[in-house]
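We include this case.
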Amino acid sequence: MNIAFFASSLLSAYWNGAATYYRGIVRALHERGHRITFYEPDAYNRQEHRDLDPPDWAKVVVFPNTEEAALRQVEAARAADMVVKASGIGVFDELLESALLETKRPNSYVVFWDVDAPATLERLQNDPADPFHSLVPRYDFVFTYGGGAPVVRGYKSLGAQECIPIYNALDPTTHYPVTPDPRFDADLGFLGHRLPDREARVDEFFFRAAQQLPQRRFLLGGIGWETKSMPANVRNLSHVYTADHNAFNCTPCAVLNISRASMARFGFSPATRVFEAAGAAACLITDSWEGIEEFFAPDEEVLVARNGDEVAAHMTALTPEHARRIGMAAYRRVLAEHTYAHRAVQFDKIIGDARAQRGRRLAFSLSARSREKEIPVSPQRVIAGTKSGEAVSALSQ
């Protein structure tokens, strides 16, 4: 299948938290025989902070940050078997959400792939005039990388034809155990950008724990924290490039996941960091959210905390040996069930089922048309084609 994928960026993770997800999904689809052209705008200085060279598993088209250039890419994608509009590109989102639907052909699919469905649904709930309301029912599929049944119900209530979560996962070729790196030596590490709907939760789960454990070393990575007041035992690294994520996960005694507020409210939304950490066999402490047990077993493959006090309690009780046991258990689970290869198999089944259903509908339609052509011969039509004597005989039968 030829797939045209419009999203924030494949080449850069700079201000682009979904980069790992896009890379994992696109690469896994390529390995199953799909051909992907990935369209990304030259925006937010991402191209100046590339951390991936153009790969051989996707054709990447970087287009100028103008509406005219965006619409030219829409035309270029018109012949694709599937056109994907991802959420959160950051530029021309409304334009592309509408324009890409016009590429629809009888044998093609147009997909909205939501990498932050809880935020999208809350936005729509808060703004009845949002133009995306009228577009949702026109997409053949809405795929999400999290949210579970609450997100499916939310999109179905908006008229979505199909809404199916295709969760975050691990690409074991990019995220795996490595030798600890002294640059990231710490007791607890947290990696995440400073975002409005996450900062209060970082204050609670990370900084509060650091305040309670002044003798422990805390490591912070991510963009935007430079102006943040923080405890003296927190070391701020600023942006950590993806090439260093494995060492960041493997070096501290444990690493912390903090979901954004909307993702925590909806649940069933494991962040990319969760699977990155598991792929590195790191001991992960995560904030509590509904559905975590569907991905990792609490206390065995992951430690769960409801607040900063519980994060501090975990850190106080955690020994290096216990941390290694939890990390290895998570590593085995993620390889067995949660790689992007697993997600690509799911994708192919979804599309295979849709094609079969479309084929059945077409066959039924053709059969109905055929039956319509087999019009019964009425007496009047018989009379019109016979001599008078023959007509009397026909009417008397």
